[in-house]
Protein 1
Amino acid sequence: MTSAQRIWLSPTAYERLQQELTTLRELCANEPGGDSSDENLTAIKRARQSRIQQIHDLLINAVVGEDPPDDGVAEPGMVVSVRYDDTGETETFLLGVRGAEHGDIEVYSVQSPLGSAILGARPGEQRTYRLPSGAELSVTVLAAVPYGMHTAEANG
């Protein structure tokens, strides 16, 4: 992530990422140095450094706890319900950022095929997107509510 695009995160996801970053930095600081002939150890170090950079980029561009307006538009921070037009099945998910898990709700990024297709859609709008297999799928947006409102409704 090299762009300065603002990234919506819930306060819980932000805190989890902060904790993961702290843990990874501690692991890196306490790793034995020297022997670069151990390929497995080198791969682990690279993976940790990569994840540290990824989390850092997420956190530095994060918009935390600010729900988008309740205007029904599918955008980051909104919980979106869609109907798959070919099967009639429905799915509800958070339009957010992968790598920052948001509890027990599925997360689709705006870079995913479905996420990019529905970005900016309002309830009743149909959008089509291409699957990795090349097949096209159509969905109709049923609802889009801010994450904070969705969690308040879910908690009753």
Protein 2
Amino acid sequence: MTEGRTGSATTLAIGSVAVALAVLALKAVAWRLTGSVALMADALESIVNVAAATAALVAIRYSSMPADANHPYGHAKAEYFSAVLEGALIIVAALLILNEAWGALANPHAPEQARLGLAISAVASAVNAAWATLLMRRGKALRSPALVADARHLWSDVVTSVGVLVGVGLVALTGILWLDPLLAALTAANILFSGGRLLRESVGGLMDEAVPPPTLERIRRIVASEAEGAIEAHDLRSRHAGRFTFLEFHLVVPGAMTVRESHDICDRIEAGLKAELQNAVITIHVEPEGKAKHKGVPVL
């Protein structure tokens, strides 16, 4: 299953590089035809897409490596580094776009061959939208932070591209030249927001953020229902690392219970949790009843 997951994620990452290169070529042609600063900004973001897709491919290949002596928990967190890099590249692209927009405000000009340039840019945006939809669905199914981050970035690109298309069309129709650099600046602002959000989420993964409260509540219910024969579970801790969810807690059992009986309870709990959470890594520390804290998860 792991090999299949890795192969599928790698194929998608390679596809992302190919799509990013194709979209970049289309947007570069649209920009060269029109001379529009807004379309230049759109093309510049596609350069970031190529770099980010390449980084995601490298990270996915590295994260699939098995655990070793130096990395006993595996290499899954490598995908978060890719997402952090992508967020940083997005911010750099936004700053470059703002610089170009500022210069164009002082010397605006009408776009040339606007109809052809906009048509080519529209095709590029349609390709991006279709790929982003596929990437988001498969990335979530494979629990790949790198693929999900790439999909979110592409959706941000699609939204800004649509805004740019509408705006440049208005420039061509109305002759209001300052709309072009204004749209470039608005594109940069949206990219900055997207990059900041991506950085926050990625850093959260690197910092071992706990699972979301709804997921934690489901975990507590499963432990309570599957631990029949035990007394309580306490000190429940969780964290994400790429596609893996790590869980650990203490399970208090009657002092007279045999090792086999307590082990059977642990097996039931693990089976229930793994049915709910894909790729769960579970550690249960069994304790005698004298260690009960009378808090945490009471057994039903």
Protein 3
Amino acid sequence: MPLGLIALALGSFGIGLTEFVIMGLLPEVAADYGVSESAAGWLISGYALSVVVGALVLTAATTRLDRKKVLLGLVVLFIIGNVITAAAPTYSIAMTGRIVAALCHGAFFGIGAVVASSLVAPEKKAGAVAIMFTGLTAANVLGVPFGTFLGQQAGWQATFWAIAGIGVIALIGIAALVPDLTTDPGNGAGNGAGNGTDEVSLRRELGAFRSSQVWFSLAITVLAYGGMFGAFTYIAYTLTEVTGFASSTVPWLLVLFGAGLVVGNWIGGRLADRSIDGTLVGVVAALIVVLAGFGLVAGSQPATIVALFLMGTLGFGTVPALQSRVMVYAGQAPTLASGANIGAFNAGNALGAWAGGVGISTGLGYTSPIWIGAGITAVGLVVLLIARTAATSTLPTVTAAPAQASADV
């Protein structure tokens, strides 16, 4: 395994920790700044919205540049954002830090996924993407519980100082371990040309969006992943109010969920290297069954434990295939489409969280986000089946040039 993948995974670990650890520290943040918890919650929502913007704008703005240098610049931006958050004397400055850190999120994962796939043989590309995303799953399993504990014991700012430190280590790792790269031949980056080549490169990247399959892929990401995240957003309420677990056990149950993410990411990457759409159809269909089953058995503690693990496994089992699919159908211009798909993940997060909240606010109960999530995911499966039928070529044909994956659709 190329050591550069480990450096990329460490970067994704830090970014994932930045995104999710704040959820466990909202009470401390709210008390420190004297704001309501709902106002503190905008540190989460504002981050997610900024990810979508950064995924598109920064990826487009840097598409003509050397990818390794872009990744290093994005990690520097990540460090700066977390330092601002850790040192912020006011709520508004803390929000600024969150926005700065979030801007690098989508572009890092989007460009990083392209770089990761370029470090391995064609038949291992989806697996390489999965290795990079292992950092994100590890952030949920290990980083969030320990980051929350550190923030509760030493002040929430200590957690963000620690995250900035992780960013420094990732910066050194990427500089040392990721080989010098340029974009695909003909893209115009890194060749020293300065007369029109840059415009051709950006135009090539934007041209990927002429593919209906790229748009199908983005829609599938929003729906298939958003349904799972909608169920997860309110899982603490389900576990305590429906299943009857004590609130003190919730962090450990979330570790179990995170373990499912790790397993699903690994299995999903291996399966996607064989068949991207085949993996998605099977995993998304299984996820719908698990979500519906979870809604039925949420009153049983043993059954809930099993369902929680399976929800994490199947929910994140889609990620390598979802990311690989959009890169494949983008052809020779995968960078901007890859970044857009990271934005689609976060758009799905927002959609699922909003829809689940509507279910609760209208009196449907704390299992309603699970049922609503199953419905959203079912729509994603329908879109996937339509996309698969509409595809006019197989994956090997699409990837005959610099391939992003080699498995049949």
Protein 4
Amino acid sequence: MSNHLKFFIDGAWVDPAVPAVLDVIDPSTEEAYTQISVGSKADVDKAVAAAKRAFSTFSLWPVAERLALLKKVLEVYNERFEDIAQAVSQEMGAPLSFAREAQAWAGRAHMESTIAALETYEFSEKRGSTTVVKEPIGVCALITPWNWPLNQIVCKVAPAIAAGCTVVLKPSEIAPISGVVFSEVMEAAGVPKGVYNMVQGNGPDVGQVMAGHPDVDMVSFTGSTRAGIIVTKTAADTVKRVAQELGGKSANIILPDADLETAVRKGVQGCFGNSGQSCDAPTRMLVPADRHDEALGYAKSEAETFVVGDPRSEETVLGPVVSQLQFDKIQRLIEAGIKEGATLVTGGPGRPENLNRGYYIRPTIFGNVTNDMTIAREEIFGPVLSILPYKDEEEAVTIANDTVYGLAAYVQSQDIAHARKVAARMRAGSVYLNYPEWDTFAPFGGYKQSGNGREYADWGIHDFLEIKGIVGYGD
């Protein structure tokens, strides 16, 4: 029996306090394929109360028992791996291969990294006669986005449980079914009653209620900067900790000594991955001005290899973006790029020619972009790349840092020592040199309006802990 219309609270699947439903749209067809229930304050109160009751005992569990629990969750997750991938593909339009190899894989990888981190994590240290201990912060409200559903769910749930916290999760109402499957995983793994709870719903009626709830000790939020500001203001009245991973407009500096063709082609791939719906995507490519036109040629050639289409087709590389709202926003920004004088290299407004329904975007490259243009300032969240020329390295660094965001930055050079020096000047939480492999043990989070706090492995565990000094503890 489907749990789509239920919430998971206190170890059981329950109906909402007030019946209300929301269609879940398949972005490849623009049609509803299922419904979820949407919650209210009464559901949040029930879930938080369950988490608060469970915290009194779960917070005292030995690390070995928490480890065993997470390993069981990982085991069941792997058993449900294909169900998770299918859910992500349908709810957000990810091609099935990408849903398996990136989306569902990310949840597995982060669970494995959290387990590995917990196995060696030190929860206390002696400093003379003082002992410093790290204790679970309490009941945690976890609010996750639609663009990397399992990545963000596991990046919050796993370290919270590793730390000894209890949680209430609100998945995105736009891509909620993967959250249902994950909740089924948690149930099957035998997570104790109240330790993990899940309530579906929208931001104002569920997310903000969680953020402002007096019995919630911490909020971990991933989403837009606009929504993050609302969450922070709501949480401020009860002076709780807020960890946020927000928007980005990441620069990709291709230094003059880089292999230009390789750097440009990989940069296009990085920007377009997940249909451009990644907050750390390298969306501003900075190239030497005297090779700008050459870079445009490589970018055009690479962009035109991307097959846009049905997520269920093996040939598809890019599926649709997630919603009508996102589609309309991206169209508006593409039009703004044209109006403001950027060179449209390939792509442009409207759907690809072979598609007449679904939220499909034409893979788009803009050249001759200046950093004051709308497409260089706003997070587009679609397969749209802006290429900006620079005259020297100093100007490149200035342009890269001239943004309200600071989530990620990218540097390409055949001289790794040089790349490291440029990386040191980037005002961003992550800097990637020469397109490295994804490292799930590296800290992930942002400077400036890209948020605060860090996720992944031991960095994530740290955010869910309080620090207590016991002075006079003795030897």
